[in-house]
User: What shape does this take?
Amino acid sequence: MFKKVLIAEDHESAGISVLKTLEELKITDTHFVYYCDDPLQRAKKSAADGEPFDLLITDLSFDEDHREQRIKNGAQLISEVRQVLPSIKSIVFSIEKKPTKIELLFKQYHIDGFVQKGRGDAQQMKKAILTVSENKKFISPEHKLSLRKNTIELTATELTILQLLSKGTVQKSIPSYLQDMGSKRYSLSYVEKNINNLKDTFQANNNAQLIAICKDLGIL
Assistant: This one.
């Protein structure tokens, strides 16, 4: 389990929630800061003292005020702290929802966990801390699904069908559009099969939900 935790969060209520979660896990050596530049200085001091932080929990965005900051966001903070403490683990605690941005945090910044702020975030944070302490990556189940959806490659026909549905084209009219576009296969049964496959892929119950999901993921 982690022994020394650094928390970067400019909203006091969110910070208190994280501190309470850490207390429940019997982690008492915690350091809370409001600004982006402060955690880096704390990290440097902990390294110099021979008592390094082993976990950084940070938001992504920080509100600007009268105090100018060199480090502008949580992603930059993670990158710079890791230069000082290469073995430190990191958990992002943010309102971010876009799968592409979350995926980037794992791939480019090599974060160890992501917890979205909102309903049930205290329990998610507890799970994240426990999971990351075991040298595993943590992401909530709904975000795992979003990331999986985000990596799906659609065929030209599937994308065309989605675009037609999003424009209000009724399902039975789609075959004629495919035929006009020169598609070799355009029967209604073929269209229905494609739509059913798409609903299975994106776990949608109907066409309207399918389009809504694809719009949320930036596919449409």
User: Anything to note?
Assistant: The CA atoms of residues 134 and 176 lie 55 Å apart. The chain has a mean pLDDT of 88. The first strand starts at residue 4 and ends at 8. The chain is about 50% helix and 10% strand.
